Amino acid sequence: MSKQRVLSGMRPSGKLHLGNLVGALENWRKLQEDYDCFFFAADWHALTTEYNGTEIIQESIREMMIDWLSVGLSPEKSVLFVQSRIKEHAELHLLLSMITPLSWLERVPTYKEQQQELTNRDLSTYGFLGYPLLQTADIIIYKAHKVPVGVDQVPHVELSREIARRFNFFYGPVFPPPEPLLTEFPKLLGIDGRKMSKSYENAIYIADPPQEIR
User: Fold this and answer.
1) What are the distances in angstroms from CA 56 to CA 99, 122, 141?
2) Domains in the chain, please, with CATH?
3) CA distances from residue 204 to 18, 156, 182, 209 in whole angstroms, order as listed
4) What is the rounded average pLDDT for all residues in the chain?
């Protein structure tokens, strides 16, 4: 019996923090034993907020991949890759944009939430509005059955399911609608009580020295 396929990605936009470790990487390491896993560095997604300072993206990809290997992700058990190296992600994103109502993107909860939180950046771009659509392309291009996510990302997977169904309605049963796979620790709070995030500047980083953590 063939294994179900799992796909997930991580933005290379700086040092990894405890939320990345507990909320994603430890879970990925376990999943690769039971699923056909695809894990990728989401460098195009990083451009949605770091478009005016891309140096950090390139610098972070290599360091992030090294961290993945150090916690037990294995190229012998999982497919590890960089999103922008697979141009078909962008092609499918373009095709999906032709059939996706704008209102579907505008209702994603994190769209308005991050616009309110990240006031030091201009997020009035299609790239930021449309990143759940690119996320959908990332998922369904590999016909992934499950997507390991935190609770705040469930609406994104639900949107991906709707878009996959809409595509299948127009063109036939091409893509299986993906399902969210909640992580054991779906949300780790940062030092200010919000979700731990580099963007919110509230993270404890894996490489932080003890004196800085104290």
Assistant:
1) 33, 18, 27
2) 5-213 (3.40.50.620)
3) 6, 26, 22, 10
4) 89
Phi, psi of 78 (to 5 degrees): -135, 160
Buried b (16+ CB within 10 A) or exposed e, 30-45: ebbeebbbbbbbbbbb
pLDDT range class, residue 123, cuts 50, 70, 90: confident
- Positive or negative: CA dihedral 82, 87, 92, 95: positive
**Residue where the block lists tokens 């909320």:** 23
- pLDDT at position 78 is 98
Residues 6+ apart with CB under 8 A from 72: 29
Q: How far apart are CA 161 and CA 202, in angstroms?
A: 32
Beta strand 179-182 with 36-41 is: unpaired
pTM recorded for the entire structure = 0.87
Which residue is it, tokens 């190229």?
Answer: 75
